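Build the 3D complex.
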Amino acid sequence: MFIPIRLAFLFLFVLATSWPVFAEVQDETLLDVQVREIAKTLRCTVCQTENIWESGAPLAQQMRGVVRDRLKLGHSPEDIKEYFLSRYGDYIMMQPPAHGVNWLLWAGPFILLLGGGLLLYKEVIGWVRRTPTPSTAPPPPLDEQARQRLERELES
Amino acid sequence: MIIEIGHFSTIIALVLSVFGMASAALALKTRNPDWARSGRMAVTLIFALLGIGMLSLVYSFIVRDFSVLYVANNSNSKLPFFYTVSAVWGGHEGSLLLWVFILSVFSTLAVWLHWRTQPTIMPYLIGVECAIIFGFLCLIVFLSSPFERLLPVPLEGKDLNPLLQDPAMVMHPPMLYMGYVGFSIPFSFAMAALFSGRLGEEWIKVTQRWTTFAWMCLTTGILLGGYWAYYELGWGGYWGWDPVENASFMPWLVGTAYLHSVLVQEKRKMFKVWNLFLIIVTFSLSLIGTFLVRSGVLTSVHSFATDPERGLYILIFVGTIIGIAFAALILRSAKLKSQVELDSLISRESIFLFNNLFFLVAAATVFLGTLYPLILETLSGAKVTVGPPYYNAVFMPIALGLLFLMGIGPYIPWRKASVANLKKSFSLPLLAGAIMVIVLAVTGIRNLYALAGTYVVAFSGMAIVMDFGKISQLYAQRNSSNIFKGCLAAFTANQRRYAAMLTHIGVLVLVIGIIASTIYQTEKVVSMKIGDEMAIGDYRMKLTNIHDVEGGNWKAEEGVFQVFEDETLLTELRPQKRIYNATQTPTTESAIYSINMGHIFLTMPEVSPEGVAVARGVLNPLILWVWGGGIIMGLGVILNILRPRKREE
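Done.
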């Protein structure tokens, strides 16, 4: 009598321990998420263009610790960024702040694109104007057009 | 002894490169074909001698001859055999030797392949190739020789950088260099055209396959680098806008512009100066990329060497080549004035020009971002970081514009497009884009970049599919066969065009993968004890064990994670935290499970002595599309290169 009951208990025990639902589910706390968000914007100073979140360097680990400690003390993300900026300067941010001469960096590509686009547009319009209009034949009927398209596709 | 043979061969190759330049000059001066023939022999011998140089280095690595300084620095008695061979290009000196060896292979191929058809070009080709070989061999022989001996002989080598002990890293540098060096062939032909004054379309037609091949190698090299970064650096991303990545991306961007722009000259005999300009810039950026990476001027994840002397030499050498090339272009520009005939702003010619503008601005952006910190520090001493947030913000609009042009360009006729034509070709694609955006918006996707990206991808994809479908149907009707045979007939009838369209589809697939895996990436970092679980997305990961494992030259702590979806066990992932014995460098080895075209990506960056593991889980949706898109692109390019020759070519 005892043996089957014991076996049943054993079976239940094994089932319970192996069943994943009974495991303790760990999740990121709000603090973890905040640390991650901030860490991704800060540069690991001993690494090469890596942020302190992605870097495995001991210094990055320390810096993540600083971020975490300050968040625990109630500092806001802005305070923490200010703290790092005051200690390391602009270098610590993963992107140059958009002030002073850095405007050149931020606006440069768009100035090039717009300026280049405008120049190119003017040039193309000029070329078009100087090109004599070719005498065009009257438009062919529809299925003829399809045939011509096929030919054009064949040679292009 | 063996390594001295290699050293000696390399020195003779250097001498022969001077001889090659001299015989090229004499061939031009005396018009005696014997001189060209001896130039050809010089190039061929350089290839053979550098082959001996490479082999001697490979041999020294295989027998682990630590009396060779370079071997001692980049190898170890416990390094697996596979990596002892790839360690040949694991460091600065060896990778330069590989560069110039590939250059000699391509030069020899080009000289023999085009010998009959391009006799007048040959002396120029030989001269230019020998000049580039000469520049690199001087660097190798005088400033960074992989053949140096080390005394006293150490008992043990320092080992190859553990990050490079990886299959993707074995192939990444050779592919990248084949791309860089491959562009030297169209560059040399362009220089030959400039020097000889034969400025027609011939050099472009002759080098079209070379260009495509170089582009394919460069693309593959870049993608392999991304793949390596993805699973080896362990942060779950594949592109970090690292200066070294940027260095390879810049020639790719301009090379892609060139690849498209030459089509205009082939068809319409226009924009001659522009194409010469583009190939010169492409090859210059290949050289600058090599300079940036190899001089140590950039400090980045990949830079392993710093040496100002070498940097200065490469700078002067690269500057000389670029200077000569541009001087030749400027001196010839009067002769190159071609009559530009454009019938309309809405024509394929004009779309190609705007495509070039976007590619060049993209390249300029990468250039600016990469060099800005250097320039700023030199001028004002201020240090800034230009990282991924900058590039993501600035690059996105440019990329969207390019993708949009990609949908338009191939379907606008040369010379002039009529309104009816535009309506017919683009109303359905525009609609397709709108429908996709509405569908996504309804399912709750609000990210502006995701929506805009989806719109252009749907637009361009629809344009490609519609066009090919129509043509295939016409073929099917004409041959009265079914539509599949029609597709095949259409493809083979114009393989060059439709192979290119296949590459475009690959780009679209890649872009979808990029959008999904960057914007919809989920990431979690959790501290876990054995028995704990973490939930990420629809999946749960249970840490069941942490144990020690040992490889040939490393030891690791390995976490065993069971991955569940609902209650079903999907797989077991085993990320490792490795320590390589020789250098005591830690690396994190990621564990990856593919599901629904995406990845569950797991690393275990830290394990505390108490047995608490820090686990980082990343869900990368649709990331397989990134690599799949790359493969489709490659397939398109291979079909393009292997197309049957037409009579007019």
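Chain A has a mean pLDDT of 77.
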